[in-house]
Amino acid sequence: MRLDKFLKVSRIIKRRALAKEVADQGRILINDRVAKSSTDVRVNDKIEIKFGNKTLIVRVERLMDTTKRDDAELMYSIIEEKYERDFKNE
């Protein structure tokens, strides 16, 4: 499954176009390698996504073409959620 589709179906990122944009900016790593939106995602892959001052690291648990809201969280497990402090405002 393509990375941008996985991010949308799992509801990590709400829109596929936004998932594509984030990936193509080099802000997503799969297994510690920079990933493009078309990169294939497989079960047990580690995905690291940088959102501004937040970094989300997840492990792919399942691949599904469509999901209901409650089932979306079954597609991944959160390994780590990191927040970078903004030292300019301190």
Helix content: 10-25%
User: What CATH architecture label applies?
Assistant: Roll
Structural class: alpha+beta
Helices, by number, come to 3
- Main beta sheet strand tally, sense and closure: 5 strands, antiparallel
Q: What is the helix/strand order?
A: HHEEEEHE
Q: What is the general shape?
A: globular
Strand content: 25-35%
Number of strands: 5
Radius of gyration, in Å, reads 13 Å
CATH fold annotation? Structural Genomics Hypothetical 15.5 Kd Protein In mrcA-pckA Intergenic Region, Chain A
Spatial order of strands in the largest sheet: 2-1-3-4-5
The CATH class name reads: Alpha Beta
Write the layout of secondary structure elements.
Elements: H1 3-9, H2 16-24, E1 28-30, E2 33-34, E3 46-51, E4 54-60, H3 69-72, E5 76-83
Antiparallel strand pairs: 1-2, 1-3, 3-4, 4-5
Give a description of the structure.
The chain is of the alpha+beta class. The protein has a single domain (3-89), classed as Roll (Structural Genomics Hypothetical 15.5 Kd Protein In mrcA-pckA Intergenic Region, Chain A). Helix content is 22%, strand content 29%. It has helices at 3-9, 16-24, 69-72, and strands spanning 28-30, 33-34, 46-51, 54-60, 76-83. A 5-stranded antiparallel sheet has the order 2-1-3-4-5. A hairpin with a 2-residue loop joins strand 1 (28-30) and strand 2 (33-34). It is globular, with a radius of gyration of 13 Å. The model has no long low-confidence stretch (mean pLDDT 91).
